[in-house]
Write a structure and sequence with these properties.
Two copies of one chain form a homodimer.
Chain A (H helix, E strand, L loop, with lengths): L11 E6 L5 E2 L14 E5 L13 H5 L31 E3 L1 H7 L4 E5 L9 H14 L4 E5 L3 H13 L2 E7 L4 H8 L4 E5 L3 H14 L3 E3 L5 H6 L2 H10 L7 E5 L4 H15 L9 E7 L4 H8 L24 H11 L3 E4 L1 H15 L5 H15 L9 E5 L7 H4 L7 E3 L3 H6 L4
Parallel strand pairs in A: 5-13, 6-7, 6-9, 7-8, 10-11, 10-13, 11-12
Antiparallel strand pairs in A: 1-2, 1-3, 4-5
Helix pairs in contact in A: 2-12, 3-4, 4-5, 8-9, 9-11, 10-11, 12-13
Chain lengths: 421, 421
C-alpha cells in the first residue's frame, strides 16, 4: 500500500527515526528501516515556499472548538473538520482553588479530559489516527486494548462510517465489553493476556494491509494527537505556558507530546519562551519510569504491572526513556504512589472540585500531593494537572471506600434522629 | 427566609402562577398562595428603564462557552460565571447523516447532552438552581433522586464548596450510589420507593429552611435551566429554529422549556419567527402523556411506571398538561415505544453516529423512527433530537443484546479461521 502523490497530511513532510535520525518518506510505516527505532512525524510550519500557511493565534482562534483548530500543526488533511468525526478536545481547563487549598498550593488547574466524546483523552489520538489512516488508504480502524482505547476506536469508526476491529483479552469485565460492543464493529475477545493480544495485533497488521491498528502501525500519527492537550492548555491559559505540569505516565507518549506541543508553540512565537517543569505520575505497582528516574538510570527496566490503575499499567513503556529526557531537561521529576493513595486522589478531586476522574486521574492528584509534600514541586508556582479519563469507567476502584452517610426510614422522625440536619 | 433587597437574579422580576396567573414576589417559593399551582419566573428583557441590558446575538456570542452565555435570560446573578460552578452546556449539536439515512430522513441533528460535566442535561438545571439558591440565601443543595440528578447535585455542590444532601431509595444499585457518594456530601439511603423519598424531601424542605431541594422548593428556578437546551440548538443552527424537534418526556419540563426558549428568541428578534413542531417521546411502560395525547384528553392520568427507561419513569408528570398544550399548539405529537425498541434505539444511535446514549436517548431515537414510519413527522424537514444522558450509566439496558463478534485463541491461525478478515 503506497501513499498517493495527491495525499494531504497538512504540515507533515516526512518521518524521522527518534533513535538514529534516519529520514523516511511519509507513509504507512512506524519503525525505522535502519535500526527499528520508532518513527516520528516531521513538519514544516514556516512560511517558506511550498510550506503550510502561517499559524497565528488568530488563525487558531478562528477554528472550531475542538482539536481541529490545531489541524495546521497535525498530520491530517486540511479538510479534516468537515469529515464526520467525534470532534474531541477543547475540554475544560478548570481553576481548582479548593484542591489547591487542600494541598497548600497557590494556583492550580485541572485539564479535565473526561469531557471528551467517550470520556478519555484517547478520543484525541484516535481522531488523528483515523484522519491520517484514511488519507493513507487504510479501510479498517483497529486496536488491541483493555478499555478506553477500545471505546474511542469503536465510536470514532462508527461515526466515520468505517469498520472497526477491536481486540481485547477475553477475561475483560462485561461492563467494558458492552461499552465498546454497543458501537457495532468487529469485536474480538482473545484467550490470553494483554501482551498476547498486542502481539496478535502486530501479526494481523503485517497480514491485513488495509487495517490501521492505531497504536501499532499508525502509531506515529496517532501519538501526535496528544500534542493537542499541550496546545489547549497554553491557549486556555491565555497563550502562555504554566510553570509546572503533572502528567500520568503509561507508555509515556502523552507526557512527551505535551512537551513537544509547548516547544512548537515557543518556536512558532505563539507563547513566550520561559522555563517550565514537566512531572510524571505513576502508580507504584507499575512504576518503571519512576524507578529509573529515582535510580538515575537512562534505561527503563520492564516490570510486571500490579496496580488498580489499569489504564496506566504498561510494564514496558515505549516512550519511557524520552520521558526521562523531558523530565530531566526541564527540571521536573517522576513520582509514584500506592493504590490506596490513588483511591484517595480520586476522592480528593471529586470532593474538592466535583470532578470524578478515573484511576489515572487519582494517580496524578496523588502524585501531585506527594511532589508538594516532598518539596519536589513548588506550591507557589502555577501548576496544571491532567485528568485523562472518567471515574464512571473505574467504579471498582472506589467501591470499597465510598458509601452512604446514613440509611433511614422514610419519615421526618427518622431524619431528625439520624442527626443529619 | 426572605430575599434581601440587594438580591440579584438577573432579568427575573417576579413569579407568576401557571394555573391562575396570580403574581408573587421573587423569592424562595414554588407554589401559588391562591391555588397551589406551580410558580414560574417572570422576566423583563426589554430596554425599558430599569430593565436588564439588551440581549443581542453579539452579546451572547461574546459570553463563555457554557450556559452562562445566556445568563441575561436566566434567573441568576450577573456574575454567575465567575463563581465556581461545573460550567455545563454548549454541548455538541451533531449532524447525524448516517442516522438520518437509516431512517429515510434528509437533515437530522443530535443535541448530545452526554457531554455535560456529569454526563446528563441535569447539570444545566442544577447549575441554575444552585446559582439562584445561593442568591436566595439557601446553604445546602439537596434533592431526592434515583440517578442523574443525584450525580449533578453532588458534583455541583462539591465544586461550589457548599454542602449537598442527596436522598435515594435504599434499593438503588451500588453503582449509582458510588457515582454520587464519591463527591463526599451527605448521602442518605431511605427505606422506601422513590415516591416515599420524594415525600420525605418535601417534608424536610418544610422544616430545614436553608435547604434548597432543587426539584422541590427551588423548582421554578431549576426548571428554567432547560431553556438553555433550546437557546443552544437555535444558536448552533446559525441563529434559526429547526422545523421539528423530538424531546424525551419525564416530568415534561424539558420539552416545555425548550419551547419557551424558542418563543423568547423569537420575541427578542434573535431568530426568525417561523413555525416549528414539538414532539414528545415516552417509553410505553410509562407513557401517561402519550396516552392523553392519543386519547385527545387534556388531563394526564397517572400511571405506575414499568420500563427500563428509569430516568423517564415519572408516572405523574407535573408538566404533562403543558406538554400537551405545546405539542398541540405547534402541530406535533407524543409517541411511545416499548422497551425492546428503546434498546434498539440506543444501538442504532451508537452504530450510526458513535454516540452511546442512555435509555432516554434510546426512547427519543426509537420514537423518532416510529414518528417517521407512521407519517407524523416529516422526513424531509430539518429535525433535532435530544440525547439527554450517557449510556455508561445504563449499561444494564443493552447488556443482554450486545457482545463480542467472536472469541479466538491468540494466534493468526485462529484469527484466519474465524473469518473476520
Amino acid at each position: 500500500m503506497a501513499l498517493s502523490p495527491a495525499s494531504n497530511l497538512g504540515p507533515a513532510v516526512g518521518l524521522i527515526c527518534r533513535e538514529c535520525g534516519t529520514a523516511a518518506e511519509l507513509g504507512p510505516r512506524y519503525a525505522c528501516d535502519q535500526c527499528f527505532g520508532p518513527l516520528e512525524i516531521e513538519y514544516r510550519f514556516t512560511r517558506t515556499e511550498g510550506a503550510h500557511p502561517e499559524i497565528t493565534r488568530a488563525s487558531i482562534e478562528a477554528g472550531p472548538r475542538n482539536i481541529w483548530r490545531y489541524r495546521g500543526l497535525l498530520p491530517v488533511p486540511d479538510q479534516v473538520a468537515e469529515t464526520p468525526n467525534t470532534e474531541p478536545g477543547f475540554t475544560r481547563l478548570v481553576r481548582a482553588d479548593q484542591l489547591a487549598e487542600s494541598l497548600g498550593m497557590s494556583r492550580l488547574w485541572v485539564k479535565d479530559d473526561s469531557g471528551n466524546p467517550t470520556h478519555s483523552f484517547k478520543d484525541r489520538v484516535v481522531a488523528v489516527a483515523l484522519a491520517a489512516a484514511r488519507e493513507l488508504g487504510f479501510k479498517v480502524l483497529a486496536c488491541p486494548s483493555t478499555g478506553n482505547l477500545a471505546n474511542a476506536v469503536a465510536a470514532a469508526a462508527a461515526r466515520a462510517g468505517i469498520r472497526s476491529a477491536v481486540f481485547v483479552p477475553s477475561n475483560l469485565e462485561s461492563q467494558k465489553i458492552i461499552t465498546t460492543a454497543v458501537y457495532g464493529g468487529t469485536f474480538v475477545t482473545v484467550d490470553g493476556n494483554y501482551d498476547d493480544v498486542n502481539r496478535l495485533a502486530s501479526e494481523i497488521a503485517g497480514e491485513q494491509e488495509d487495517w490501521a491498528f492505531v497504536n501499532v502501525n499508525v502509531r506515529p500519527y496517532y501519538a501526535e494527537g496528544s500534542k493537542t492537550l499541550g496546545y489547549e492548555i497554553a491557549e486556555q491559559l491565555g497563550w502562555r505556558l504554566p510553570d509546572q505540569i503533572v502528567v500520568p505516565v503509561a507508555s509515556g507518549s502523552q507526557l512527551t507530546k505535551i512537551d513537544k506541543a509547548f516547544q512548537e508553540f515557543i518556536k512558532l512565537g505563539l507563547v513566550e519562551d520561559r522555563p517550565y517543569k514537566v512531572f510524571g505520575a505513576q502508580a507504584t505497582g507499575c512504576s518503571p519510569v519512576a524507578a529509573a528516574f529515582k535510580g538515575g538510570h537512562d534505561v527503563v527496566r520492564p516490570v510486571k504491572p500490579d496496580t488498580l490503575a489499569k489504564s496506566l499499567a504498561i510494564g514496558n513503556p515505549a516512550d519511557g526513556p524520552y520521558v526521562l529526557d523531558v523530565v530531566r531537561r526541564t527540571g521536573g521529576a517522576v513520582e509514584d504512589i500506592d493504590d490506596a493513595e490513588v483511591v484517595e486522589g480520586i476522592r480528593l478531586l471529586a470532593r474538592t472540585e466535583g470532578i470524578f476522574g478515573e484511576t489515572a486521574g487519582g494517580v496524578t492528584v496523588g502524585c501531585l500531593s506527594k511532589l508538594v509534600r516532598t518539596g519536589q514541586l513548588d506550591p507557589e508556582a502555577e501548576t496544571v494537572i491532567i485528568n485523562s479519563g472518567d471515574g464512571l469507567k473505574t467504579l471498582d476502584a472506589v467501591a470499597p471506600v465510598v458509601g452512604p452517610s446514613a440509611n433511614i426510614a422514610p419519615s421526618l422522625e427518622a431524619f431528625r434522629a439520624a442527626g443529619l440536619a
